[in-house]
Design a protein that fits this description.
9% strand; ATP-binding; single chain; ABCC_6TM_D2; membrane; ABC transporter; alpha/beta; P-loop_NTPase
């Protein structure tokens, strides 16, 4: 796509907006952001005024043309004067309507440019805020919602601003013209406007509040969905899909409830607007006719009626628009408030100080004096009165039990959490001054491995600026060479969103390589060794932290947080923290209409058909009223009012049906289908190869389109279609000769819309797809803000550049789409002068047989037909665009069907078991827990086997350790038992046709996935803890969904009855006392029974408030496993995937004791990088390259010369049974 041009450079616009924001007045008033935007974009605003002014002048000239044309038809003029008048009328029609078309096209183009500039600037403000705000306030999903919704609404406010002055001017001119036409009766439209505006003000008092509630509900649902997508493997491993799906459905139900409450007001406003448009002319003409008859003045004639109708339309249209300003302005102010509130959130307080002359020493890099630090603003301090120094160029190891504040210390050194007391001084307080950071959970941008390591040094071709020799040394030191050799694209392999294409150990080593490659003066490494096997860990430690390691070579000061006490001898300084804390497919319409339901669709269609028919009859009846000469006045006016009332009621029913019935019901159905497809049907490889932002866009922008854009586009398309048809019938009835022109006009419109739809459809789909780039940019920035800040201004500038590029890419199709929309508007607008000239010319040619009423109706039809033609084509395009969301939903479900061997029909009611041979095991299965792999191979992608020809029999009740270096296939072996990785069959190279896996003699591939996972006990490596969940809700995700047998509905309070079991599970893993201590510092209500009150308080606290460390979260995951055994109805097979990777040795022993005692007699499979955790096992499986290379008792394998297990033990420095 072509660039936007130098005047729309994203970087320049965002820099200008950032500069204006930084110069804003303080303290900020409510309209601070609005003022900043107007100051930054005043030139763009000024360019919109001239074409809009020309359009208003020409629009107000239409009544003169109508009046003059009707008078001409009824007048008997001499031939010469007759021809001159015809010429003048034709020129007037041509100038007025062609001028309006051109002026409106220029206005719309400049308005779109203004909107794009506004969006560029606002997104720039939001992106910078993501990098500077406090970690406790950071929420990537919130920023995505603001950028996709509120920022777009505010950026599009230019139309509102220019409508205010232009519509006010148009209204004033219209009132003047109406006063000249009907005298004092002209005040009646104003009285109707005032009455309606009073009603609207009552209706819209709560618009901002309800819109905020709706937006907040949407944001909560999207945030919850995002958290689940990030942890979808964990959710599936735990067999918690039913619970999580019910939670997201509840969030969707709350969102739809807020939607209905908000749209009740919007429907009421819309109905009020329709009432103004319909009843203003009815009251005006009726009162005029009655008072004229009473006073004995001239009765209504055709010229007066239809000229007045044209003027009233000029009055009512801007009045309608100005009425619309009330809720629109309320919504705009609400969006501005949300944006400004976000932008004014406190920035992180970097209270770090430089090592001044009083402290400067060549031997000290960082000095901490009496620092007291809390991990979150609402949490208790975990570091109290800490005093320590980090010697320059030395290795400082920080150790301590779980929850003692090790990560908080790292964040304090980064400046992310300020100390309450004391001070932190460093040579590295300026961001980018030789600082590198590896978080406990590795953050990787979605790009190649080479990009992730070298960062912003790379040019657009992925090369320039890279020190290849140093790069190769870094790869070797981080033991990445063997991993890259196994990847077809080596370091050009895309890591995926959040690094999902890599194993946990590979992600951590890539992040570590990034830190080393930056040649930092200070490196903060937070538990980076926990995900590595013993051999790889020893290689990395020797080559980075050893006497000849790269960090020593660079003279880097290293702060290493670790539980691996075997590396303490390498440390120059040790800090120990104690516990005191210190497309146009017709099937798409069918798909959507099935979600709508035939009854609802019929009600909408019928009401719109009645509305169009009655609206078409009104001008015909007005002609009869005007030609009646004042006779039977009450009859004619009574029927006129009846037609107006019927029109009003039918359109009110249609609007209520589309927004209050169709939209929420169809949206709920489609959201459920999408959620089913993602959580139940999508293969795990989908989440490894698809960025989270791309999937999240289906639940965010796409769902927003299905909820808001699609229903409105359907309503407008049907309304415009029926109105165009009635206008065509009416024109053929009053001007039969013009019937010959209608097929030509229809053919012209058909060709134009085909060309327009073909182009706009593709651009709109591109627009929808590129919007996810902005979402991905915000999610990535929010996730890695601490890392980006740590690596300094160069990385921050690269992040801003990447975000600007995403905005530019997203705006290109939007801007081009606006261009072709304006082209369509101009082309269809130019049909109006052609039709007007044809009508006037035909009337002049057959003047003797033409009645003034016929010409009046024909001109009215011409004026209305263009409006509805434009609306029809535009609405049809928006409908097709919105159906693009349906297309993506259907395509996703079809692709899932093919992957899962399901029947790829268009049914909305797939079941997971469809297409499979299903077997539901009896209650309590697996009763014994024996596991057999028979020549089993599995693959994530078709090219490479993750498991290769695995054969092993694991007896019931055995305790099995699974070991091997990072990427050897340990996790894949466990995932295969949960059917998270599917068997590979020929023609995949190396796959075996007869491969099988059985538990208790049952082929697991006969069991539905969710049934299988719900029968096993799994503790994933990454515990899923949702910050907004209470402790009770977070524990209950692994329990069966409580359903009432009577009505098959979820029982809302069933989990409360399990409070005792939950407390006991937390006590069993040692978390209950920690939670009680933290809960005691929070306010709570006094109730009967101190002990029961205490339990309820703790279980009702949100997980985010407790601020558990990563190690404590792993204890929490073990508590879930205990709960699964006691009340979850799980079988005799336990799977532990690095369940103790982030805990200290003492906590590890506690967890191992819990596992032995709670799961005595169970078959337990444990993946471990710490080899001491498997030395007490009955059996050890050694994996390498996806193959099972050794099986045996740990003692036997340890003594086997040349064995792989023995090599791993030597790498782990295992001597005399101790490490």
């Amino acid at each position: 796509m072509p660039p936007l041009g130098p005047s729309m450079d994203v970087v320049l616009v965002r820099e200008a907006m950032l500069k204006e924001w930084d110069r804003r007045e303080r303290p900020e008033g409510r309209y601070a952001l609005l003022k900043v935007q107007l100051r930054c974009l005043w030139r763009a605003h000024a360019s919109v005024v001239p074409p809009r002014l020309v359009f208003v002048v020409l629009s107000c000239s239409q009544p003169a043309l109508v009046s003059r044309a009707i008078t001409f038809v009824g007048a008997d003029l001499p031939p010469l004067e007759n021809r001159a008048e015809v010429f003048r009328l034709l020129v007037m029609a041509l100038v007025i309507y062609a001028g309006m078309a051109v002026a409106n096209g220029m206005y719309q183009r400049r308005l779109v440019r203004l909107n794009c500039l506004g969006r560029m600037g606002l997104v720039g403000l939001l992106h910078r805020k993501c990098l500077t705000m406090r970690d406790s306030d950071a929420d990537g999903s919130g920023a995505v919602t603001l950028a996709n919704s509120d920022a777009e609404d505010v950026a599009n406010s230019g139309e509102l601003v220019h409508d205010l002055w232009s519509k006010t001017l148009e209204l004033a001119v219209g009132m003047y013209l109406l006063a000249r036409q009907v005298g004092w009766v002209c005040v009646l439209p104003l009285l109707v406007v005032i009455a309606v505006s009073r009603a609207v003000s009552k209706i819209t008092d709560n618009v901002a509040e309800r819109q905020m509630d709706f937006t907040q509900a949407t944001q909560e649902r999207v945030s919850l969905t995002r958290a689940v997508l990030d942890a979808v493997k964990t959710v599936r491993m735990m067999g918690a899909v039913d619970r999580i799906q019910a939670k997201i459905r509840d969030a969707r139900d709350r969102e739809m409830g807020a939607y209905v409450r908000f749209y009740r007001l919007m429907v009421a406003f819309f109905v009020s607007s329709v009432a103004l448009h319909l009843f203003s002319p009815a009251f005006t003409l009726t009162v005029y006719a009655v008072q004229a008859q009473i006073r004995g003045k001239q009765a209504l004639d055709v010229e007066t009626v239809f000229t007045a109708l044209t003027i009233i339309d000029i009055v009512c249209t801007p009045a309608n628009t100005l009425l619309g300003v009330i809720p629109e302005a309320a919504s705009l102010l609400a969006a501005l408030d949300r944006l400004q509130k976000y932008l004014l959130l406190p920035d992180r307080e970097d209270k770090r100080l430089s090592l001044d002359s009083g402290y400067a020493s060549s031997d000290i890099a960082v000095r901490i004096d009496g620092a007291t630090v809390r991990p979150a603003p609402t949490a208790d301090p975990v570091l109290k009165n800490i005093t320590a120094s980090l010697p320059r160029g030395r290795l400082v190891v920080v150790s301590g039990a779980v929850g003692t504040g090790k990560t908080t210390l790292a964040r304090a050194l980064l400046g992310d959490v300020p100390p309450d007391e004391g001070e932190i001084r460093s040579d590295f307080t300026k961001e980018g001054r030789g600082l590198a950071y590896c978080a406990q959970t590795a953050w990787l941008p979605n790009g190649t491995i080479r990009d992730a390591i070298c960062g912003p040094l790379l040019d657009e071709d992925g090369n320039g600026g890279v020190d290849e020799v140093w790069y190769r040394r870094v790869l070797h030191a981080c033991d990445l060479e063997q991993d890259l050799d196994q990847m077809p694209l080596r370091d050009a392999t895309v890591v995926g969103s959040r690094g999902t294409a890599l194993s946990g150990g590979q992600k951590q080593r890539v992040a570590l390589a990034r830190a080393v490659y930056a040649r930092p003066g200070l490196a903060i490494l937070d538990d980076v060794l926990s995900a590595l096997d013993a051999t790889t860990e020893q290689h990395v430690v020797d080559n980075l932290l050893g006497p000849k390691g790269l960090f020593r070579e660079l003279g880097t000061t290293v702060l290493l947080i670790t539980h691996a006490i075997q590396h303490l001898p390498l440390a120059d300084h040790i800090i120990v923290l104690d516990e005191n804390g210190s497309t146009g497919d017709i099937t798409l319409y069918s798909y959507y209409f099935r979600a709508v339901g035939p009854g609802r669709l019929f009600l909408l269609t019928f009401s719109l058909l009645v509305y169009s028919a009655l609206a078409g009859l009104i001008p015909v009846w007005l002609r009869r009223l005007a030609e009646s000469g004042g006779e039977r006045m009450w009859f004619y006016t009574g029927v006129y009012f009846a037609l107006t009332t019927g029109t009003f009621l039918s359109v009110a029913i249609a609007v209520g049906t589309i927004f209050l019935i169709i939209a929420p019901s169809a949206g709920t159905v489609l959201h459920t289908q999408l959620l089913d497809a993602v959580l139940r049907l999508a293969p795990q490889t989908y989440f490894s190869t698809t960025p989270t932002a791309a999937t999240l866009s289906r639940f965010g922008p796409d769902m927003g389109m299905l909820d808001r854009s699609l229903p409105f586009a359907l309503f407008q398309a049907l309304q415009a279609l029926f109105r165009v048809l009635t206008q065509a019938v009416l024109l053929a009835a009053v001007q039969p000769l013009l019937a010959a022109v209608l097929p030509v006009a229809a053919a012209f419109v058909f060709v134009i819309q085909k060309l327009y739809l073909a182009t706009s459809r593709q651009l709109r789909l591109l627009d929808l797809e590129t919007r996810s780039l902005v979402s991905a940019s915000f999610l990535e920035t929010a996730d890695g803000a601490a890392t980006v800040r740590a690596f300094g201004p160069r990385w921050a500038a690269a992040s801003a550049k990447q975000n600007a590029g995403a905005v530019d890419s997203a705006l290109r199709p939007e801007y081009l789409l606006a261009g072709i929309q304006q082209w369509l508007d101009v082309v269809l607008d130019l049909m109006v002068p052609a039709l007007a000239v044809a009508v006037i010319g035909l009337a002049a040619a057959v003047k003797e047989s033409t009645q003034p009423g016929q010409l009046a109706i024909a001109l009215t039809v011409v004026l209305n037909a263009n409006t509805y033609l434009l609306r029809l084509v535009s609405a049809w395009t928006r409908l097709e665009t919105a159906l693009g969301a349906i297309s993506r939903l259907r395509a996703f479900r079809l692709s899932v069907a093919q992957n899962m061997n399901l029947n790829p029909t268009l049914s909305l009611n797939w079941e997971e078991g469809e297409g499979e041979t299903t077997y539901i095991p009896p209650e309590g299965w697996p009763i014994h827990g024996d596991v057999v792999f028979s020549r089993f191979s599995a693959a994530y992608v078709s090219e490479t086997l993750a498991l290769n020809d695995i054969s092993v029999a694991i007896p019931a009740g055995a305790r099995v350790g699974i070991v091997g270096r990072t990427g050897s296939g340990k996790t894949s072996l466990v995932l295969s038992l949960l059917r998270l990785i599917e068997p590979a069959v020929p023609p995949v190279p190396g796959a075996q046709e007869e491969g099988a896996v059985s538990i208790d003699g049952v082929d697991i591939f006969r069991i539905p996935r969710e049934t299988l996972r719900a029968r096993l006990i799994a503790v994933p490596q990454d515990p899923m803890v949702l910050a907004t969940d209470t402790v009770r809700e977070s524990l209950a995700v692994v329990l069966p969904l409580p359903v009432s047998r009577e009505d098959n509905k979820i029982v809302g309070d069933a989990d409360v009855n399990r409070d005792k079991d939950m407390v006991e599970a937390l006590q069993r893993v040692g978390l209950w006392s920690i939670m009680q201590a933290r809960a005691s510092s929070l306010p709570r209500e006094e109730e009967e029974g101190e002990e029961e009150n205490s339990k309820k308080d703790v279980l009702d606290i949100t997980m985010g408030t407790l601020a558990l460390s990563h190690g404590q979260q792993q204890l929490f995951a073990l508590a879930r496993a205990v709960l699964m055994r006691r009340v979850g109805g799980r079988g005799q097979l336990v799977l532990l995937d690095e369940a103790t990777s982030s805990v200290d040795a003492a906590t590890d022993k506690v967890m191992q004791s819990v596992v032995r005692e709670e799961f005595a007699g169970y078959t337990v499979l444990t993946i471990a990088h710490r080899l001491d955790t498997v030395m007490g096992s009955d059996l050890v499986l050694v994996m390498d390259g996806g193959r099972l290379v050794e099986v045996g008792k740990p003692g036997d394998l340890a003594g086997k010369e040349g064995g792989r297990f023995r090599e791993l033990l030597r790498g782990g420095v295992w001597e005399d049974g101790k490490r």
